[in-house]
């Protein structure tokens, strides 16, 4: 049972933030308090609802022991209802009180790459990117393509994009891994089902304070950008290759005609990759004694299969199958998978915390 003083503290902090918001004028303070207010509001409302339910249960117990038989009967019915409702409220609030990943509100670098399967894999990579693009649009997020390498059949060998908005990483972080597709390619004359794959990486973009990069650790090369098949698309040395010497990470950007813009985009991607690597190292240390099905971030892990002939999508981490592939690939029903993955991760986190206590 969640202690009442913890519920009171949540509600008290929420009210204090509301009061402070009415007095501050500094833009940074306004942004900070608005963000905290938005995060606290659903938790404070749930805490207040649980507090009220507990109080109602105490009142009902008193009435059940009274002299009026009709009132006592009504009170006993109320008690039965509240005894069912209170555990539900406590479970919901426990999940809301779990420690938040500080990167949940961060924008992300989305990277989609064709895997095994040749042209069909490139087409599928394009399908996945458009799925995330439409999903982002539905969420009110902004998508900016950073770099892309198109295939000759209309898909992508690889594509990178920056996605910004509210709680982007929090919603997208379980999409990293290998996505497999089973369908009949348009070029298949005998109707045979082919299996192809694409790899998705979702990297949170760090704030300046999260990670530092020393100029001495970078080797920066410039060269002429080229298009599909090696044809020149730029007559100046505008493409940029940045190598992070300590880790060997290499980032190439050539979509912009400006070397300055390509360098800025490359640094953005490099920072995200270094930040992601550090997060993975820390997560590995924390989970050395236990493994979670969700959110391992292993890029080689096959996480989902999209079967077109049977119109089904299966997420292998939680064993969930949905027979609505058309709506998922259109981005409309992707939330159903994300919600299920989020709940599974929260439940595992709650169980781990209970074991520790």
Summary, kept brief:
By secondary structure, the protein is of the alpha+beta class.
Can you walk me through this structure?
The protein is α+β, with helices and mostly antiparallel strands. The protein has three domains: 4-96; 108-207 and 291-353, Alpha-Beta Plaits; 215-282, 2-Layer Sandwich (Double Stranded RNA Binding Domain), CATH 3.30.160. The protein contains eight helices and eleven strands. The strands form two sheets. The chain has an eight-stranded mixed beta sheet. Helix 1 runs antiparallel to helix 2 (27-64) and helix 2 (27-64) packs antiparallel against helix 3. The radius of gyration is 26 Å and the shape is globular.
Set out the fold topology.
Blueprint: H1 4-21, H2 27-64, H3 69-96, E1 108-114, H4 118-139, E2 142-150, E3 156-164, H5 168-172, E4 177-183, E5 194-204, E6 218-223, E7 239-244, E8 249-253, H6 259-286, E9 302-307, E10 312-315, E11 320-322, H7 325-329, H8 334-356
Parallel strand pairs: 4-9
Antiparallel strand pairs: 1-3, 1-5, 2-3, 4-5, 6-7, 7-8, 9-10, 10-11
Helix pairs in contact: 1-2, 2-3
Distance from first to last alpha carbon? 13 Å
Strand content: 15-25%
Helix percentage: 40-55%
Q: Stretches where pLDDT falls below 50 for ≥5 residues? A: 228-232, 288-293
Strand order of the largest sheet: 2-3-1-5-4-9-10-11
- Which secondary-structure class do the elements indicate? alpha+beta
The value of Rg in angstroms is 26 Å
Order of helices and strands: HHHEHEEHEEEEEHEEEHH
Average of the residue pLDDT scores? 87
Oligomer description: single chain
The CATH class name of the largest domain reads Alpha Beta
- Total helical elements: 8
How many discrete structural domains?
3
The profile of the biggest β sheet is: 8 strands, mixed
In the CATH hierarchy, the third-tier topology of the largest domain is known as Alpha-Beta Plaits
Number of strands: 11
> Which architecture name of the largest domain does CATH use?
2-Layer Sandwich
* Backbone shape: globular
